[in-house]
Amino acid sequence: EALGPQEYTALKMEVVQWSGLAAPEVDQKVQGKKVYFVAATLRPETMYGQTNCYVGPAIPYGLYAINDTNVYVCTERAARNMAYQGTTSEKGRVECLATLDGAKLVGTKIKAPFAHYGEVYVLPMETVLATKGTGVVTSVPSDSPDDYATLMELRKKAEYYKIDPSWAALDPFPVLRTPSYGDMAAEFLCKQMKIQSPKDKVQLAEAKDLTYKEGFYSGVMLAGEYKGLTVQEAKPKVRADMIQQGLAFPYAE
Ligand code: A2H
């Protein structure tokens, strides 16, 4: 665990179409408002490679009225933190319009800011922690071994996870080049370390550490406006651009 507060980038992923299970519970309550899934990430420079987004199927999520026009989907804990960080129109207070388990959100189509694939689906990930970030994790399987392992698992067992195979059909997209692991470091390491599933915790933790260090210290951008810059140079620039364009905001905990 880091000592000081962790500084995340909270990415706003606008709902394009609700899943069949969510629609009847939320449509009435959010009329005339824009609704966003809010994903907390430490790697804003990788957002070009989003292929989907993850929620914990058994985690309760709220639809929080952040101001008159915007509604955010996240855990109650995150909404409360946002209220104290000046994200909401009224400091310290936020109204909950509806509560749903993640399982019902699966299959919702959302926008993926900055991504090569403009629209992606919400999918289930058993290892999402309710106690970290917003409980919403945007998936970048090119550079996150956890995201890659879960995406492959969902593709193998779509029926078991109750997903439509088309929701998991977007392939990993290369975002940055690394000298040791190529253009898709997470895929490379998952294959090399023979990671079979999201349950291979020990290997996944090691793969995560290796991809993170290699990407951060030796990575060069392959996508976006800062193509050709090092990851260290690009990271704060991408984050600032997202925030300036209203597609993200700072979130700390
Ligand atoms: B990262 P830290 Cl490309 N449960 O974003 C599980 N994981 C969560 C989470 C939660 N509630 N909230 C956020 N995360 C993930 C991108 C990424 C991330 C890449 C590579 C590595 C990586 C795309 N997913 O994280 O414990 C989010 O995934 C490796 C650490 O606060 C977030 O950044 O350090 C990261 O974990 C935050 O983890």
Automatic annotation (TrEMBL):
Belongs to the class-I aminoacyl-tRNA synthetase family. The chain holds residues 281 to 533 of 1091 of the full protein. It comes from the Eukaryota. This is leucine--tRNA ligase.
